[in-house]
Amino acid sequence: MSNGQSLADHITLELRADIIGGRLVPGMALVENDLVSAYNASRNTIREALHRLGQEGLTVYVRNKGVSVRRLGVVDVRDLFKVRRTLELHAINASQPLRDDQSERMLQALEATELATEREDWRAVGTHSLAFHQHIVGLLRSPLFDEFFTNVVAQLRLVFSTAPDESRFQAPWLARDRQIHALLAEGDIRAAADAMSLYLDDSEHLLLQICTPSSHH
């Protein structure tokens, strides 16, 4: 723990990372006693961390039941995509030609996604694919937007986790991420923005289907 991070900060970040990694899924209980021993922390510290996750829209508190990982609905998905369109499309439209380090970070995320696909580790596929989109927002070079988008990514991850068949859901996106990167690398900003716009439309459509209970039958 560095840079003046409190234990509560540290635990909040770790639990959020567990959500982004797909290790904590919607509906899962976050039991205070378990967390106290897992993190060797006081009850107050754990409560503070859980409270923060609640403020970030990642957990819910139910009276007499305690805290659990949040399930997101149709309204949440629409809102998340409003944010994605605003940030990701703006990042592309405002971007300069990709610097080597920016391109490299994106390629690493794409490679990791590909390896996870070959292993059929769909949980990791979702996480690495989101990392690619974090690098897109990273083009804005705004620590505030990066921090905010990490929270958006964590909420998106919770929606992914509810997909009944994650392989069918995750499989088609890698080629499209690669295309967006290639267009950015070529400096074809307009085509990259068009590709991203279509990507977000299709992704939102699919996630809305996942969130609509009737589609499970």
UniProtKB/TrEMBL annotation:
Molecular function terms from GO: DNA binding; DNA-binding transcription factor activity
Pfam families: FCD, GntR
Residues annotated as domain HTH gntR-type: 5-72
Keywords, alphabetical: DNA-binding, Transcription, Transcription regulation
PANTHER family xref list: TRANSCRIPTIONAL REGULATOR, GNTR FAMILY, UXU OPERON TRANSCRIPTIONAL REGULATOR
Name of this protein: GntR family transcriptional regulator
Organism of derivation: Pseudomonas arsenicoxydans
